[in-house]
Design brief:
The complex is a heterodimer of chains A (473) and B (502).
Chain A lengths: L5 H16 L3 H20 L3 H20 L3 H23 L1 H12 L16 H16 L9 H9 L1 H4 L7 H9 L5 H25 L1 H8 L7 H32 L17 H7 L2 H12 L8 H20 L3 H23 L9 H18 L3 H11 L18 H15 L6 H5 L6 H24 L11
Chain B lengths: L2 H28 L16 H5 L3 H13 L2 H18 L3 E2 L2 E3 L5 E3 L11 H20 L3 E6 L3 H4 L9 H4 L2 H15 L4 E2 L1 H10 L15 H15 L10 E9 L2 H5 L7 E7 L1 H7 L3 H5 L3 E5 L1 H5 L11 E4 L4 H9 L3 E5 L2 H10 L7 H13 L4 E5 L3 E4 L1 E4 L2 E4 L5 E5 L8 E11 L3 E7 L14 E6 L2 E8 L8 E5 L7 E12 L7
Parallel strand pairs in B: 4-5, 4-10, 8-9, 8-10
Antiparallel strand pairs in B: 1-2, 2-3, 6-7, 11-21, 12-15, 13-14, 14-21, 15-20, 16-19, 16-21, 17-18, 17-20
Helix pairs in contact in B: 5-8, 5-16, 5-17, 9-10, 15-17
Classes of the chains: A mainly alpha (473), B alpha+beta (502).
């Protein structure tokens, strides 16, 4: 069940808000927990058991860590819990990929086949939440949460459950203890939710037919211009899809009095890949920074170790998105550019601060990386790259693969492209829900929200739903 | 918080709550609307599914409730009307926009796939075989194919949706070339409609927002059918559009819940034609005509009055009624829209297992009661069949027996076949016909009569098409192999002058 689906918007959400917000304060968390479990069960059927298993492992593992006195026993408990959580993730997400590649490399035929395994929705997100919680407790950064209902409510809270953001316990626990529910917070949440829904249904879904058509076209028929259009349009679609979802998650949480940190901050306004990763899927990049890069030594052990750590982190970041060579290569592609930027800034410290770098370096590079993310095979990505590199080919400027563009796609692409290339770091959604916004802007934002809600109601109520791209992760 | 912000917050909160709660609230206060858009509502799940907590049941409940809300219906109506009238592009479920406000039914285009030559040839051959079988049993049968709207009006197809119709022309050409070479007796309305389109540019032959032909388009097609059946009618004054326009419901408009009142169509003046037709003698002779049709001929129901003793059924009507009507008729007109012809002949309402096919077989068996002079077949070629004391026993899958139909010693007689067989399991018994004289090849898929048979003993007598005398037939006793025994295969004769078996 996705946030833009009519069954969620007009059936589950009214019930969830009524039940949770009108419940007695003591029943707030239990009701939210039940609603979240129903939400996940509705979305994933019996895989709710996996979610509950992760809750149990994280909750009991953390309590055990608190009880254990010696470092050795704490390490053993933490390692066991992490192995179980990662083991579940690997089983569902990576085992088939591993077996397939072992077969390929060794030339053998392992007797195991795992092709029938269905990926539980959101497993990468909630597994990472469980890991961060356990590691934080292990590091004594936070105490273990003794209240099972509070912990379970945080862990299964439906706004972040199936497509993030990855919400760390320490960042939100106080809100779960004392939810800040008010008319103002509800209104801010509703505004943010409506804005996210607009991004999804009007722009991401509007742009989608462009990359869909070009990526589905025969590889050898894609022209230079079509290939770049496909990559750029996909970048726009992905951004509006995922940041739209994050906006909706942030907005929903806010309606229940819970504050989530931002997950996107105009990433296409970056001047470098390094900067991009500070602004794109922030909850994931900071997770890897805090729980993988820094523990591996970060940049503390010399250049070579730093480069190695960076490449490992980005390889894992790529694989986090999916068990395939395309995602791995996409991660490494970004890792290599970040590594190159490190080398460059070491020699020319000011080099990445130039604004024009965005247009001559960052945007072309990040656009060039999207075919890896979108392609179903390396061959497909390479064939698109070939087309992107052949401006002099015959029919290089032919748009046959996608023309004529639908009007809705042109409008969506124009808005998306403006966000893609316009200067400045202003985020409309974040501005609308800023605490310091002036009265006039606030009223303008309210008017926009009302219009957006009407538009979204018509679109959501009248149409079929399109899944969010980040569900597959 | 300032007063302005408080007011803004209240407005946003109210709007949000109204947005999410209104569909169910409207349902609660106004009750459920009637089914709309020519489709059924999602059913509520059974109580057991809800009580066992099936996750699919939740979705079903939500969908079932929301579909019944007036607000959903209105949202669909608003969205579709905006997309059609302002954006001019619409692609939803089964409908896409064309140019200048035209709408097209996506079913015309087989999901963007090209139809295969094998399927088309098999379908057309099957229809040709049905015409032969009908003639053998004394029925004058006609297949009429109304054209797809996108075949007649390709200039209104929107290039934005080329992915859907990219194969349309190829499939339409393939069907027509196959009809020309393999079944020229099938009445294809396209040429007549194209002529009328050229000659009456001001009159739409198909509705802009309807899948079907207009009353004028239907009249043109029906006149083609009449003149095929009654050549005398070709000299008469054809029906003509009048100045009078009538609003008629348009199915695509209804389907999309567009804001509109239907489509204005010219009325037809067919009084002169009808009066002239009534004087043709043959109408009286053909005292029992059965018309089996889909929604195209439904639209011109009034025009079929010349068949005064005719009965009309849709292809999905009660099988018993259709069979009884076919058994008692001496003319059968079957109409099927172009897009559905191939699938219908292969597995649908024009196949042998359909009501039409079963009725034709029943009619043929009835006619075969007049057959006489049966004698065992002579020499035959067997494959996967052995001859033993029990008769012809199948030994492998796809068994075949090729036999030559004898030529009558005297007079003009129609060949008949009598088969006695035993099946251990239900199977499809099939007799392939040689091609007509002048046609290439031997036995082709589809040029056959099929009888789905249950397990057990069967005695089958059929009248075979006239032209088969002296030519070969191939008997395929079933696909299963080792399950069928033909105890006897005999040929006999029915007097060509024999009365119509009714």
């Amino acid at each position: 069940m996705v946030f833009s689906a009519s069954n969620f918007l007009f059936f589950f959400l009214p019930i969830a808000l009524s039940v949770a917000l009108f419940a007695k304060p003591s029943a707030f968390r239990p009701s939210l927990l039940v609603l979240s479990l129903v939400f996940y069960y509705w979305s994933s059927d019996t895989y709710v058991i996996i979610l509950v298993a992760d809750v149990v492992v994280a909750y009991l593992g953390a309590l055990a860590l608190d009880v254990c006195g010696s470092t050795r026993s704490r390490n053993a408990v933490a390692t066991s819990a992490v192995v179980i959580l990662v083991g579940i993730l690997v089983f569902f997400k990576y085992l088939d990929f591993i077996v397939m590649n072992v077969d390929l490399i060794s030339g053998s035929k392992l007797p195991m086949k795992f092709t029938g395994i269905v990926l539980p929705i959101g497993i990468s997100f909630f597994t990472f939440q469980a890991l961060s919680y356990l590691i934080d407790v292990h590091r004594r950064a936070i105490p273990a949460e003794p209240n099972v209902v509070l912990f379970s409510t945080y862990f299964t809270f439906f706004p972040h459950l199936i497509a993030g953001p990855i919400v760390r316990y320490r960042d939100v626990v106080e809100d779960f203890r004392e939810p800040k529910i008010s008319l103002a917070s509800f209104s801010v949440g509703a505004t943010r939710f409506a804005h996210g829904l607009m991004k999804k249904v009007m722009i991401a879904d509007g742009v989608a037919p462009i990359p869909d058509a070009i990526f589905a076209a025969p590889h050898d028929s894609i022209s230079f211009i079509s290939a770049w259009l496909a990559a750029a349009a996909y970048g726009i679609q992905l951004y509006f899809d995922f940041s739209g979802y994050s906006d909706m998650a942030i907005g929903l949480a806010r309606m229940f009095g819970i504050r989530f940190a931002e997950n996107f901050k105009r990433p296409y306004a970056s001047r470098s890949i390094t900067e991009f990763w500070r602004l794109w899927h922030i909850s994931l990049s900071t997770w890897f920074r805090d729980y993988l890069y820094i523990p591996m030594g970060g940049s503390r052990h010399g250049r070579i170790a730093t480069y190695r750590n960076l490449l490992i982190v980005f390889a894992v970041t790529g694989l986090w998105h999916g068990a395939s060579w395309t995602f791995l290569c996409w991660g490494l592609f970004h890792g290599l550019f970040i590594l190159g930027e490190r080398v460059a800034t070491g020699r020319w410290p000011k080099v990445l601060e130039k604004g024009w770098l965005r247009y001559v370096y960052f945007l072309p590079v990040v656009t060039f990386s999207w075919p890896l993310f979108r392609s179903t095979s390396l061959e497909q990505a390479i064939s698109l790259w070939k087309a992107m590199g052949l401006p002099g080919a015959a029919d290089a400027f032919s748009l046959d693969a996608v023309s004529p563009l639908a009007t809705t796609s042109i409008i969506a692409l124009a808005i998306g492209a403006a966000i893609y290339v316009l200067p400045g770091r202003l985020s409309f959604g974040q501005l609308l829900t800023s605490e310091t916004i002036g009265d006039r802007l606030y009223i303008a934002g309210a008017c926009y929200t009302v219009v957006a809600l009407v538009v979204c109601q018509v679109v959501a109520l009248s149409g079929g739903y399109t899944p969010f791209l980040y569900f597959q992760f | 918080m300032s007063k302005a912000k408080k007011i803004g917050s209240a407005i946003v909160t109210t709007a949000f709550v109204a947005m999410i709660a209104s569909p169910l609230l409207v349902l609660g206060f106004r009750g459920a609307v009637e089914p709309y858009g020519q489709r059924e509502f999602t059913l509520f799940p059974p109580m057991e599914a809800l009580s066992t907590g099936s996750s699919g049941a939740f979705d079903q409940v939500a969908s079932a409730l929301l579909e019944r809300s007036q607000l959903k219906k209105s949202a669909i109506s608003v969205r579709n009307t905006i997309l059609l009238k302002i954006v001019h592009q619409y692609d939803q479920n089964n409908v896409v926009t064309g140019k200048d406000g035209w709408l097209f039914w996506k079913g015309d285009w087989f999901g963007g796939q090209c139809q295969t030559k094998y399927d088309v040839e098999m379908a057309v051959s099957r229809m040709e075989a049905m015409l032969d079988v009908a003639a053998a049993s004394g029925i004058e049968m006609y297949f009429a194919i109304p054209s797809d709207k996108s075949t007649l009006y390709p200039e209104f197809l929107d290039p934005h949706f080329k992915k859907f119709w990219v194969c349309k022309q190829q499939s339409a050409d393939l069907l027509r070339s196959t009809i020309r070479t393999k079944a020229s007796r099938i009445i294809d309305h396209l040429t007549a409609l194209q002529d009328a389109k050229r000659n009456s540019p001001g009159n739409n032959l198909y509705g802009k927002v309807d899948t079907h032909w207009t009353y004028f388009g239907g009249a043109i097609a029906f006149r083609q059918l009449l003149t095929t059946i009654f050549p005398e009618a070709s000299g008469m004054q054809p029906p003509a559009p009048t100045e009078k326009m009538t609003l008629r419901p348009a199915d695509l408009e209804t389907l999309m819940l567009l804001v509109g009142n239907g489509e204005a169509e010219s009325d037809i003046d067919s009084s002169v034609e009808t009066k002239a037709l009534s004087s043709i003698k043959q109408f009286d002779q053909a005292n029992s005509t059965v018309i089996l049709h889909d929604s195209f001929y439904s639209k011109i129901r009034g025009l079929t009055d010349p068949f005064r003793n005719g009965v009309e059924y849709t292809l999905g009507a009660d099988p018993k009624e259709i069979t009884n009507a076919v058994l008692g008729s001496n003319r059968l007109i079957v109409s099927r829209i172009e897009r559905a012809v191939v699938d219908s002949a292969l597995t649908g309402p024009l196949s042998w297992s359909s009501t039409l096919g079963q009725s034709l077989v029943a009619r043929d068996e009835l006619a075969a009661r007049e057959c006489e002079g049966f004698a065992s077949s002579g020499k035959s070629t067997l494959r996967g069949i052995v001859v033993d004391a029990s008769g012809f026993r199948t030994t492998t899958p796809d068994p075949q027996m090729v036999a030559t139909v004898p030529i009558p010693a005297t007079g003009r007689k129609t060949p008949c076949i009598r088969l006695q067989l035993t099946l251990k399991i239900p199977d499809v018994f099939e007799i392939f016909f040689s091609p007509h004289a002048g046609e290439d090849g031997a036995f082709v898929a589809g040029r056959s009569i099929q009888l789905p048979l249950d397990a057990g003993d069967h005695a089958i007598e059929l009248v075979l098409p006239d032209y088969l005398a002296g030519r070969s037939i191939r008997i395929d006793p079933g696909d299963s192999g080792q399950q069928t025994t033909m105890r006897d295969v005999q040929f006999g004769w029915r007097s060509a002058a024999g009365g119509t078996a009714r």
